[in-house]
Amino acid sequence: MATITKDQIEERVTEAVASFGPEPEDVKLDATFESLDVDSLDLVELGQIVQDEYGVELKSDDMPKLKTVGDAVDLIASRAS
Amino acid sequence: MNRRVVVTGVGAVTPLGVGAETLHERWVRGESGIEDGVAACSDFDPVDHLTRKEARRNDRFSQLALVACAEALEQAGWDDDGPYDRTRVGCVVGTGIGGIETLTDADGVLREQGPERVSPLSIPLMMANAAPAALAMRHNLQGQCYGTVSACAAGAHAIGAAARMIDAGDADAVVCGGAEAALVPLAYAAFGAMDALSDSGISRPFDARRDGFVMGEGAGILVLEDAERAEARGATVLGEILGYGATADAHHLTAPEPRGEGAARALIAAMRDAGVDATQIDYVNAHGTSTPLNDRAETVAIKAALGERAADVPVSSTKSAIGHLLGAAGAVEAVATLLALRDRVAPPTLGYEEPEEGLDLDYVPDGARSLDTNGRQPVALSSSFGFGGHNAVLCLGGVA
Q: Going from the N-terminus, what domains does chain A have, and what CATH number goes with each?
């Protein structure tokens, strides 16, 4: 697989999360999913997107650990590398 | 009905535009929302009315219901908290099909990309109770909340069930109505296969040339309140649910019972529930689909239920202007009927020109006509009949 940088993952995750409804400028690494009104159903969709694009699987036990956008980027980056 | 149930707000999104008054005014003027044989809500763009999140989290039928609901609650004068204990406010919204666009889109993803790619939002968006769930969440309605599913009678059943909920003392107010958004290839193909759709693309109920219904989409929402409580809070009353009657043909999966017996029983039950007799009926808002079978059986039913009054009472079909909104039809037509009673007007059956033998009621063919009620409360019947033989009739009252 071609090398994927963490910046690229951050950009893609931010874009995906913004598509779920929050204002794009509010989607920062330290923003919590709760504050963005992003719930478990949205995170399943995020999981489908990263599986498609990076071949990374987010399992249902991963979801409760993901509190912020940064948590998701970190986890995806660690599995994509 | 033991308690009086009043209507304090109405909202609608229809092929004539966004807003109940738009529907009323344009229909009374004789304008049609049907273009090229389709009755779409072309003016409706969800992002004009909903947040991006709300738009994404709702199938189009629920989006239409949310917008009609906001209009109805605003007219009722409800703020975010509403005037009642939230646990005493119900919500009943009918649909014929539910989120069929979500269903067919998800099926496309399943076939093309596999089961892992099917959205987790598919079920919550397509489920037939999605609209009442969305309204309850948006407006914090915590009483009884469910959908009614009875094809093209669903909207009328929802209003009837809502009125009964108040009548039984189970709620102080109920937000109710119907919603439908089924303008997708699968629905066209399936209704077409049944020969239910108009080949000419013209909705002309009761006319000899009628050849099927024109499919439409939309939503109608009403706010019903216990009359005593509405009065105590100083609400402006728009009209009243005087009575409700519902029956089944138990005859055929799709065809109406040709003698209209089930429909007539529902008409009679609604009048009896309201405590009115046929001589007091000022206007009939017919189901009037523009299908050969319905309009004939319905005419027979109106004659059976209203007796001599049937020859004189104005009977018109909203579907002549907006097509058939399926599970939303009964609710949108109840809204149209209440506004017609408010303005003492019988709106026209558009396109009616050629009579057919036996179809000889006063279908209000030549434009809207004023209703003279001599200062008493105007009373109307609004009928809805659904595939499966479901018949639901509302007896509606205006303000005296």
A: 6-80 (1.10.1200.10)
Q: Which residues of A touch B63 (CB under 8 A)?
A: none
pLDDT digits (tens, 9 = 90+) for A10-59: 999 999 999 999 999 999 999 999 999 999 999 999 999 999 999 999 98
Q: For residue B118, give how far its alpha carbon lies from the nearest alpha carbon of chain A (Å).
A: 9
Task: Walk me through the domains of chain B, giving residue ranges and CATH numbers.
Answer: 5-232 (3.40.47.10), 243-397 (3.40.47.10)
Strand, coil or helix: what is B388? Answer: coil
Q: Is ipTM strictly over 0.85?
A: yes
CA distance A62 to B186: 38
Strands B283-285 and B315-316: parallel
B174/B184 Cα distance (integer angstroms): 31
Residue B112 sits at the chain A interface (C-beta within 8 Å): no
pTM exceeding 0.90: yes
Is B24 assigned a catalytic role?
Answer: no
List chain A residues with CB under 8 Å of B57. 21
